[in-house]
Amino acid sequence: MSSSSDSSETRGGRSRRAELKRHYKEKPPPMGMFAVRNRANGKVLVGTSINLPGALNRIRFQLELGAHENPALQQDWQRHGADNFSFEVLDELPPSEEPREDPRAELEVLEALWLERLKPYGEAGYNTPPP
């Protein structure tokens, strides 16, 4: 049997959940640079995303399915196992008071800096070297 106070808590809980959901949808996800590191051999994949948590989840999911687009990364994942990989946020674009029209230019600058710093090519990483 439910009392009226239980009913008001349920309504209050629902409105709180609705408020949290609305706030989540209004708040853009963090964007910036990420790295997938192979701790067994030191290689790294560096990338950018306008949704860092989503990108890292997608990459992990693709690797677990055996369907990642980077064959060397996928092969090392199969060889060394998930426990030998870390998924890291390297850098985030700071939140902006005004909505960003197109953050890609800012992400390209960040990417150039991190690629220069880490040089994740050949034996050091999974990125394709610049031309």
Q: Can you offer a commentary on this structure?
A:
- By secondary structure, the chain is α+β, with helices and mostly antiparallel strands.
- The protein has two domains: 1-28; 32-124, GIY-YIG endonuclease (3-Layer(aba) Sandwich).
- 47% of the residues lie in helices and 16% in strands.
- It contains four helices and three strands, in the order H-E-E-H-H-E-H.
- This is LuxR family transcriptional regulator.
- Residues 1-34 are annotated as: Disordered.
- Residues 8-18 have a biased composition (Basic and acidic residues).
According to CATH, the homologous superfamily of the largest domain is: GIY-YIG endonuclease
Can you tell me the CATH topology of the largest domain? GIY-YIG endonuclease
Could you say which structural class the secondary elements and strand pairing correspond to? alpha+beta
Shape: flat
Distance between the termini: 71 Å
CATH class of the largest domain: Alpha Beta
Strand order of the largest sheet: 2-1-3
- The CATH architecture term of the largest domain is 3-Layer(aba) Sandwich
Tally of distinct domains: 2
Would you identify the regions where 5 or more consecutive residues have pLDDT less than 50? 2-9
Number of strands: 3
> Major sheet: size, sense and barrel closure?
3 strands, antiparallel
Tally of DSSP helical segments: 4
- Average of pLDDT: 88
Order of helices and strands: HEEHHEH
Helical content, roughly?
40-55%
InterPro entries: GIY-YIG_endonuc_sf (IPR035901)
Biased composition (Basic and acidic residues): 8-18
Region (Disordered): 1-34
Organism: Hyalangium minutum
